[in-house]
């Protein structure tokens, strides 16, 4: 306390306050971003794939790799509320393929594996239990390697029908593929977990 009842801020006090602020500011930011609770997903990476040989990939939607951070979070219920339905489970094909008019969300339920995305020269993704891999319509996919326990659940938007393509699409079919959209509910769910979309 200084003369006349004024508070004197010494250099030592200033440094202490600055240090405390630096330590607590990230916590405040996290609390503000997660005021309703921690996010159940961690965004590992997202990227856009260019057309590659006979694999069209998607011109407007990214490939997204998530990690399910909370074991107790009811993932299936969240996906169903956002309009997704699980249609098969097992291991993806070991030969390259894509879906022409359906997005797919692979949910890894056991083991570890490596998937090739976007065609022969695309990106390889290391997957483990709890990971989710979103592949928009037209995205090349192939299981390169996996341990014997590796399993995924394949979830698709409820109004989209999936197929298996292993050759180039006709011009009209490629127009339909590139126009395959993502519902507002699915976008909202993915944006909440950090996905950045270039188009609306």
UniProtKB/TrEMBL annotation:
Keywords: DNA-binding. It comes from the Bacteria. The lineage of its organism: Bacteria, Pseudomonadati, Pseudomonadota, Gammaproteobacteria, Enterobacterales. PANTHER family: BLR7373 PROTEIN (PTHR36448), CUPIN TYPE-1 DOMAIN-CONTAINING PROTEIN (PTHR36448:SF2). Residues 99-158 form the AraC-type transcription regulator ligand-binding domain. CDD domains: cupin_YjlB-like (cd02219). The keyword DNA-binding applies. This is Cupin domain-containing protein. InterPro entries: AraC_lig, RmlC-like_jellyroll, RmlC_Cupin_sf, YjiB-like. The keyword Transmembrane does not apply. It holds the Pfam family Cupin_6.
């Amino acid at each position: 306390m200084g003369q006349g009842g004024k508070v004197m801020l010494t250099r030592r006090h200033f440094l202490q306050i600055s240090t405390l602020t630096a330590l607590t500011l990230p916590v405040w930011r996290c609390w503000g971003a997660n005021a309703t609770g921690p996010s159940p997903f961690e965004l590992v990476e997202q990227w856009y794939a260019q057309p590659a040989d006979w694999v069209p990939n998607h011109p407007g939607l990214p490939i997204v790799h998530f990690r399910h951070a909370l074991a107790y979070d009811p993932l299936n219920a969240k996906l169903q509320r956002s309009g997704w339905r699980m249609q098969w489970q097992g291991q993806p094909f070991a030969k390259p393929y894509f879906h022409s008019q359906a997005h797919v969300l692979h949910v890894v339920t056991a083991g570890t594996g490596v998937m090739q995305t976007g065609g022969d020269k695309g990106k390889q993704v290391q997957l483990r239990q709890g990971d989710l891999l979103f592949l928009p319509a037209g995205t090349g996919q192939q299981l390169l390697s996996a341990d014997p326990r590796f399993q995924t659940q394949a979830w698709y938007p409820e109004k989209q029908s999936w197929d298996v393509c292993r050759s180039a699409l006709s011009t009209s079919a490629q127009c339909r593929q590139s126009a395959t959209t993502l519902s507002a509910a699915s976008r909202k769910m993915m944006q909440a977990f950090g996905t950045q979309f270039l188009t609306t």
